[in-house]
């Protein structure tokens, strides 16, 4: 996990209730980070705020809503790399499972 502080809680989408939105000045813990399209930006999932199915299509918060110390920024970069490897591994397992199911 990587700690961060929210610096921008503006422009909450109407699909996301206020109790599932970040608050400026509050510290959060990032548990997952990814690159999202079509925005082409880094986005994060937080331990403290769960954007569930009721918030669809929103799943993540843009990383630019948060502030990081230098050490936290390094942690975030490492988390992004770890998440990318995990995503790739999951995709490989799904493909492997699909091939195995197709051959049965």
Structural class of the helix and strand makeup? alpha+beta
Can you count the beta strands? 5
Tally of alpha and pi helices: 1
Separation, N- and C-terminal Cα atoms: 40 Å
For the residues shown, what is the average pLDDT? 90
Number of domains: 1
Low-confidence residue ranges:
none
Strand line-up across the major sheet: 4-3-2-1-5
Summary, kept brief:
The protein is α+β, with helices and mostly antiparallel strands.
Question: How would you characterize the overall build of this protein?
Answer:
With 104 residues, this protein is an alpha+beta fold. The protein has one helix spanning 70-102, and strands at residues 2-6, 27-36, 41-46, 61-62, 66-67. The chain has one domain.
Task: Name a few traits of the molecule.
single chain, alpha+beta, 104 residues, globular, five-stranded antiparallel β-sheet
List the helices and strands and how they pair.
Elements (H helix, E strand, L loop, with lengths): L1 E5 L20 E10 L4 E6 L14 E2 L3 E2 L2 H33 L2
